[in-house]
Design a protein that fits this description.
By secondary structure, the chain is an alpha/beta fold. It has three domains: about 260 residues, 3-Layer(aba) Sandwich (Rossmann fold); about 160 residues, 3-Layer(aba) Sandwich (Rossmann fold); about 130 residues, Rossmann fold. The chain is about 35% helix and about 15% strand. It is built from 21 helices and 19 strands. The protein has a seven-stranded mixed β-sheet, with helices on both faces. The protein has a five-stranded parallel β-sheet with strand order 1-2-3-5-4, sandwiched between helices. A five-stranded mixed β-sheet has the order 14-16-15-18-19, sandwiched between helices. Helix 8 links the parallel strand 4 and strand 5. Helix 5 packs across helix 13, helix 13 packs parallel to helix 14 and helix 17 packs across helix 21.
């Protein structure tokens, strides 16, 4: 298809204005990446004003085409494009990087037209996979576009996304790589070898197109071809020059992350303004953003998910032995039946996490990324940004692979529900590589993230439902061993609460546990009772927020004696959560945790060897009670 050449002069002026605004804004800020913006100017002009369908007055419209800036350091050109579209005033660009402005150094969802936080390279394309999947979920014809830098193409997550998008046949996804050949400190891996990029993307199953990234007609033709391509995603490989339009910086190393100053700034602006077609920049944002180029309306909706119904969770008998990972899968399937927004993602462990129960009942909302945890979590962030409630689940140990994605999701407070199974030494013979012993610390470090650790099937079901209802990131930790049901079916488990399982007026100590150690604490309680020592047992199923009031009250009622026991390393887990809660009240905590690198063995042997069994709890309590003043 041939592009209407009559639009090209206007688009050229748009590209020039994007460069001018990027240069001005970064120079005012005294920091930023103007040359990285300049290389992408024609790409942005072609996308926003020649191809994408969106309503700038309603950037969150669910049928708008979506755009993700994976090379987040080029944020000023994104902000300039939205100013050009009339979504923000041009005068707002002057506040780039100021503490009172939402135009931050890298984009965040504080802005209504930014779906996910980017800037940690290699993440945007993973989120774009999820955003494209969401169009399928809601039956919309919107398309998803993502702009990558060539430097970030060295990131493994880019190729995880490449595999996943091709396997899923995401023909509504179009990526563009700005191949300007220069990174931060040196030339990029393949420089301007466009054939090297093309071979790789074609090998991954994408429709790959090589174009001159400063040729607007070629870009528009490529975008049209991408829109006509069926059955696979498209990668447009745009050969560009870093600093394009500024003669003394164009294609030259050493300018990354350096705003123009003084005479360099004056010269850059003079050169750029001299390339305008005579009209210059619009006097105000209220003028037509691109004369003669009306922005297309969003596409029409082609379908709609079914409405929500009442949630019916599985029932469990008291005393029945059920693994919390199994209860997680059953609850997730029930959630899927009640709410069409709920989706599940897996990294080839669905028969261990039991998320395959969701797949059997709701296959159209189950997304398999295979053994690729970064794209699984990244796609979940993208799905959540567009209104889905995603539950990505894998072994808790493997979520550390996606720690950077989780961190970035926390920056945007994305509504994703992470689930990690097979946590702790209690998994047994598989050994330390499979034992998540740092996951609670990782998740508690994410601002605003709710961290839940149920001990039985009933609490697991209730907390899966609570996670879905909570607006924000949530982590659910489940275990491999079967554990007895200790709660009645009608028990409530609010986020931020705890449960007292054993209690008497003569309790000498409080033992706080979570997950599998709840049952070690109960066994210790029975042993101590035979010796005449009464112990209060608290199930701290919510580690963040933790039940501070309840813990302080329990500690005070038991002489200030408090023991925590957890199937986790000592740093950052249950012990630290409880200590943070009670320390301001002068209460010390005796913490039992895994303090050495574990090894293979039977679960009971491992709990004993690494200091978190019932025997060790008994010893800790006896030491506290024996040393207490009479």
């Amino acid at each position: 298809m041939s592009t209407d050449r009559s639009t090209l002069p206007a688009l050229r002026d748009v590209a020039t204005r994007l460069r001018i605004e990027s240069v001005r804004a970064t120079s005012r800020a005294g920091s930023g990446h103007p040359t990285s913006c300049c290389s992408a100017a024609e790409i942005m002009a072609a996308l926003f004003f020649g191809q994408m369908r969106f309503d700038p007055r309603e950037p969150g419209h669910e049928d708008n085409d979506r755009f993700v800036l994976s090379k987040g350091h080029a944020a000023p050109v994104l902000y300039a494009a939205w100013a050009e579209a009339g979504a923000i005033g041009r005068d707002e660009l002057a506040a780039l990087r100021e503490i009172g402005s939402d135009l931050e150094g890298h984009p965040t969802p504080r802005l209504p037209w930014v779906d996910v936080a980017t800037g940690s390279l290699g993440q945007g394309i993973c989120a774009a996979v999820g955003i494209a999947l969401n169009a399928r979920r809601i039956g919309s014809a919107y398309r998803t576009y993502v702009l990558l830098g060539d430097g970030e193409s060295a990131e493994g997550s880019v190729w995880e996304a490449a595999q996943a998008a091709a396997a899923m046949g995401l023909d509504n996804l179009c990526a563009i790589t700005d191949v300007n050949a220069l990174g931060q400190s040196r030339a990029t891996q393949w420089g301007h070898d466009m054939a090297a990029y093309e071979r790789r993307w074609r090998a991954f199953g994408w429709h790959a197109l090589v174009v001159d990234g400063h040729d607007l007609a070629a870009l528009l033709d490529a975008l049209e071809e991408a829109a006509r391509t069926d059955g696979r995603p498209t990668m447009i490989l745009a050969r560009t020059l870093k600093g394009k339009g500024v003669s003394f910086a164009e294609g030259r190393d050493g300018w990354h992350g350096k705003p123009f100053k003084g005479e360099d700034l004056d010269r850059a602006l003079q050169e750029l303004e001299g390339r305008l077609g005579g009209a210059g920049a619009p006097a105000s944002a209220s003028e037509a953003p691109v004369p003669g180029l009306p922005i297309p309306a969003p596409p029409a909706r082609t379908g709609r998910p079914s409405s929500r119904t009442a949630l019916s969770l599985p029932a469990y008998e008291l005393g029945a032995k059920v693994a919390t990972r199994e209860a997680y899968g059953a609850a997730l399937a029930a959630l899927g039946a009640a709410d069409p927004r709920v989706v599940a993602l897996d990294a080839d462990v669905k028969n261990s996490t039991f998320s395959d129960r969701f797949e059997r009942q709701h296959p159209e909302r189950f997304y398999q990324t295979h053994i690729a945890e970064q794209v699984m979590v990244g796609a979940a962030l993208g799905l959540a940004s567009r209104g889905a409630i995603p539950f990505p689940s894998t072994f808790a140990a493997f979520l550390t692979r996606a720690a950077d994605f989780i961190r970035m999701g926390g920056i945007g407070n994305v509504n994703v529900k992470l689930a990690g199974s097979h946590a702790g030494v209690s998994i047994g013979e598989d050994g330390p590589s499979q034992m998540a012993l740092e996951d609670l610390a990782m998740m508690r470090a994410v601002p605003g993230c709710v961290v839940l650790y149920p001990c039985d099937a009933v609490s697991t079901s209730a907390l899966v439902a609570a996670a879905a209802a909570h607006d924000g990131m949530t982590y659910i930790r489940t275990s491999r061993p079967k554990t007895p049901v200790v709660y009645a079916a009608d028990e409530a488990f609010p986020i931020g609460g705890s449960k007292t399982l054993r209690e008497s007026a003569s309790d000498a100590c409080t033992v706080v546990a979570a997950g599998v150690t709840v049952f070690e604490a109960l066994a210790a309680c029975d042993t101590l009772a035979e010796a005449g020592v009464r112990v209060r047992v608290v199930d701290a199923y919510s580690l963040q927020p933790v039940d501070a009031d309840g813990l302080v009250a329990a500690a005070r009622a038991t002489g200030g004696r408090l023991v925590t026991v957890e199937d986790h390393y000592a740093a950052g887990g249950l012990g630290d959560a409880v200590s943070d809660a009670v320390a301001p009240h002068g209460i010390a905590v005796r913490r039992l945790a895994v303090r050495d690198v574990p090894r293979s063995g039977k679960p009971a042997e491992l709990l004993e060897r690494f200091g978190i069994s019932a025997r060790h709890i008994v010893a800790a309590v006896e030491a506290l009670v024996d040393t207490a003043p009479a």
